[in-house]
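Many introductory courses stop at the sequence. We go one step further.
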Amino acid sequence: MMRIDLLRGDARAARNREQAIAKREGIARWAKSHPDRRRAAQARYRSKPGSKEKRAALDRARKERQDPSYIRAKKTHWLSDKGKAQVRAWRKSAAGIAWKKSDKRVSWEKAYAKSEKERERVRLKARAPQHKASNQRYMQTEAGKLMNQRRSHRRRAALRGVPSEFTKEQWGALQRAYDCCCAYCGAKKSMTQDHVRAVKNGGHDRIENIVPACKSCNSRKRDLEIPVAFKMFGVDTDAFWARHEAAVAKVRGEIT
């Protein structure tokens, strides 16, 4: 019984909406064909008591709907789970089904298909293979590998809720401060970013915890604890941290 009542309510709402649209279209046709009578009717309406306040209220409501914060709030609502559920329910209702089959919706879709936005989407889709090949080539370069590594570091840090404040400029300055040498073996090779204390073990993603390391040392170190890793590489703890503090100070002085 409740379902029947809901369906009746949806049908009634659709019928009322169609009648309101037809009424507005009829008024617009009349106003266009009788401009003098339209102006006289407007003058009579404006002379009525309270019409000025009513127009002011309508103007305020229209300005509120055009306000960017109001638009953002509405967009946030319709993108939320509650808003999406309302949209799905409306599409299944009699009003939604009637709108889907209406001539107005069909004409709107045809106009959108011819619009510049749709043509741009088709062009981008046609160029997608070229973009994909270009991205793959970029990912093979040093800059692409660095970007991919930083993205992985930020993701792991975010998953563990630790700060991620290391920037590309800091990484370039840190490599120069170490003379592009590995912090563990001293080799002058292609450098990777190594967290002295692994993020998995509670380390943060800031410059104080990052050193340049060659791929071999970075792979060997993995997520070992600091004393174990230093012992494996034969690194003097005090000398290592003194050198790193000096490098960090040099980076901060260079960037700031």
